[in-house]
Structures are given as C-alpha cells and as structure tokens.
Amino acid sequence: MLTPGAVVAKVRQMTANPLDRVNPPGLATPSGFSHAVVAEGSRVVFLAGQTGMDATGAIVGGGVVAQFEQALGNLLAALAAAGGRPEQLASLTVYIVDMDDYRRRAREVGAVWRRLVGRDYPAMAGIGVSRLWDTEALVELQGAAVLP
Hints:
By secondary structure, the chain is of the alpha+beta class. It has helices at residues 4-15, 63-81, 99-104, 106-116, and strands spanning 19-22, 36-39, 43-50, 89-96, 123-128, 139-147. It has 4 helices and 6 strands.
C-alpha cells in the first residue's frame, strides 16, 4: 500500500508536473488562485509582463476580458517557447488598471483562464496600478513556471 506522500510523488511522476498546490484548511477557500505552490522542478522560467498586445504591436480592443485573454495567450506562448505548459505556472501577478471593472468581470476572466489553462491556479496576486507602459493596456500578466 502506498503512503499519501508516495501517492503524490506517483501522480507528479505520471503528470510530469513538479508543482503541488497547497490550500490549508485554516485559510479561506481560494477562488481563482492557490495560497501556496511548492515547486520541485529543476528548471524555473521567469515570464516577462505581457499585455493585450497582438503580433502587430497594437493593444487589442474589447475591454479588460479581451485584453486578459490576449495577455494570457502571450504569456502562454512565451512559456511554450521555453518548453513549458500552462499547468506548470507556479506564480502569476496580474496588474490591473481598473480594479472595479476587473472584479465585475471576474467570472468572464475566470472562464478565459479555465479555457486556456484549466482548473489549476498558481499562487496569484492582483495589483491595482494607475497605468501600464502602453497607455491603452488595461491588464498585464507576469509569472514564473517550474519545469521538470
């Protein structure tokens, strides 16, 4: 019979995901993030901040949800180019120009996340800022991933 630690190790080996998401019962149940992520991989990828900029260098229209989708797609493209997969994201910081608008659209943003990444969340922070480098940008994502 396998111990709980051996089961976790076996699952990690089978999925090739070196991350354990930790959400202790003494903290509020997280929604859209994990309280902690333990990384046991050997390769860390630091991902530069990505906005809703398309391949031509223009910020996409359509509001914060469209820009979040473009920014997340850009971040995932950079991660893939480094040899990683979405489920290997360990940490993500979301910089938000209009926090009230972002919160109103949280369900839509969450749907984009689930479609592009899945149901696992990295350790995350959402930070309100007065503006981003590109004045049209409403959101920017910066992260780190751990690869086996």
